């Protein structure tokens, strides 16, 4: 609800906000960029708070704060106040879901962590498949303020659900990760040093952070404005929105599929593959415009880029160890600040050139750079790679005839 309202729903709100308040697309994109930047700054803060506070309480608090701010976003014609409310909503995405949600998944799953991250993060993309179309209908039949109010109230309803259904760890309920009867086998190697000073000197942490920062910059910016992109190319409002929603729906399905790739192979392999496929799918946007090429671009890009948020926490857990998830994720999250640069890049591209082609060139180069950075990382450097090799060798030995 939160990520969908502040990111995907801009597919429905972009043009009506410009028409209602006289704002430009560049102005709204700069507003989104600032709000997103503050949200990304909140990631390491949320990770630090998560080590000291109940994840269940944080999730409920984030839902309330985010829901109220979204409801108020439709009641102002001042872009500065709109930006301030957007900042609160973006920060809430890290408290209600985001860092806190990924910390919960990391606590509850080990062997099936990739698929669990995929399912948990599929909600973000499912919101992009449903909420923009619902918002478009509300705007058409009512107005912008009513649409934002409906989204805000629905988000507030998450608070009691989080409070009654959420639990911080399986051990608190006498259970074990993955629903198994015992704790998972841990690495026999010395614990990894995940202090901030050590990670600051770690080339691997920098490579991983920069790679995902650049890739998520592309994902967020392009997915937030699929509908305006297709409308500029000649589609009517509803067909353009349906294509945008279809892209988000494929992204939701892809999250589980990419999580399966993480579990079947390794998270590092999945990260390299998703960045390569994302760059290839973005290239489809340069084909001559037509309903079939737009459909191919929409579905392929959503299916590829949708895996990033599922793979990122899986890679962090794999490379630094599940027990070190929060401190290492806190450091990596600093680089996700790069995500905020994508919105003004898109807005300026449209205002200066009349299309998103210039921004697509920048984004294509960014995805290829992300792939190059991931190729510099080695499987042998991952903390949990030794555990997987030991488990595979043990299974092979057990399968041999006596």
Automatic annotation (TrEMBL):
Name the record gives this protein: MFS transporter
InterPro entries for this protein: MFS, MFS_trans_sf, Proton-linked_MCT
Lineage: Bacteria, Pseudomonadati, Thermodesulfobacteriota, Desulfovibrionia, Desulfovibrionales
Bilayer-crossing regions: 26-46, 58-75, 81-105, 117-141, 147-166, 205-226, 238-258, 270-291, 297-319, 331-350, 356-377
Keyword Disulfide bond: no
Transmembrane found in the keyword field: yes
Pfam families: MFS_1
PANTHER family on file: EG:103B4.3 PROTEIN-RELATED, MONOCARBOXYLATE TRANSPORTER
Molecular-function annotations in GO: transmembrane transporter activity
Keywords: Membrane, Transmembrane, Transmembrane helix
């Amino acid at each position: 609800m939160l990520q969908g309202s502040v990111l995907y729903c801009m597919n429905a709100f972009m043009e009506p906000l410009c028409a209602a308040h006289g704002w430009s697309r560049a102005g709204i994109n700069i507003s989104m960029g600032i709000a997103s930047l503050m949200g990304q700054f909140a990631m390491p803060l949320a990770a630090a708070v998560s080590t000291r506070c109940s994840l269940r309480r944080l999730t409920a608090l984030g839902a309330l704060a985010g829901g109220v701010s979204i409801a108020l976003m439709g009641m102002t014609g001042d872009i500065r106040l709109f930006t301030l409310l957007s900042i609160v909503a973006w920060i809430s995405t890290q408290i209600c879901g985001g860092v806190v949600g990924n910390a919960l998944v990391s606590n509850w799953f080990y062997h099936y962590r990739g698929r669990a991250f995929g399912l948990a993060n599929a909600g973000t993309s499912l919101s992009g498949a449903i909420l923009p179309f619902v918002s478009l209908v509300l705007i058409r039949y009512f107005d912008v303020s009513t649409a934002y109010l409906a989204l805000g109230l629905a988000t507030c309803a998450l608070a009691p659900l989080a409070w009654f259904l959420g639990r911080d760890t399986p051990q608190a309920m006498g259970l074990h990760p993955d629903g198994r009867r015992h704790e998972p086998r841990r690495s026999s190697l010395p614990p990894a040093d995940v202090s901030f000073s050590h990670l600051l000197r770690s080339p691997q942490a920098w490579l991983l952070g920069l790679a995902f920062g650049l890739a998520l910059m592309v994902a967020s910016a392009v997915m937030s404005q699929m509908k305006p992109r297709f409308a500029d190319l000649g589609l009517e409002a509803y067909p353009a929105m349906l294509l945008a929603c279809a892209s988000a729906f494929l992204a939701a399905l892809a999250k589980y599929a990419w999580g399966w790739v993480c579990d079947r192979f390794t998270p590092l392999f999945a990260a390299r593959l998703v960045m390569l496929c994302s760059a290839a799918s973005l290239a489809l946007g340069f084909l001559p415009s037509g309903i079939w090429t737009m459909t191919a671009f929409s579905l392929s890009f959503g299916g590829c880029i949708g895996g990033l948020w599922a793979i990122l926490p899986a890679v962090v857990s794999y490379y630094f160890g599940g027990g070190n998830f929060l401190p290492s994720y806190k450091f990596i999250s600093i680089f996700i600040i790069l995500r905020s640069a994508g919105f003004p890049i898109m807005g300026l591209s449209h205002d200066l050139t009349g299309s998103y082609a210039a921004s697509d060139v920048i984004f294509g180069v960014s995805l290829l750079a992300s792939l190059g950075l991931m190729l510099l990382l080695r499987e042998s450097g991952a903390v949990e790679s030794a555990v997987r090799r030991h488990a595979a060798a043990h299974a092979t030995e057990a399968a041999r005839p006596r």
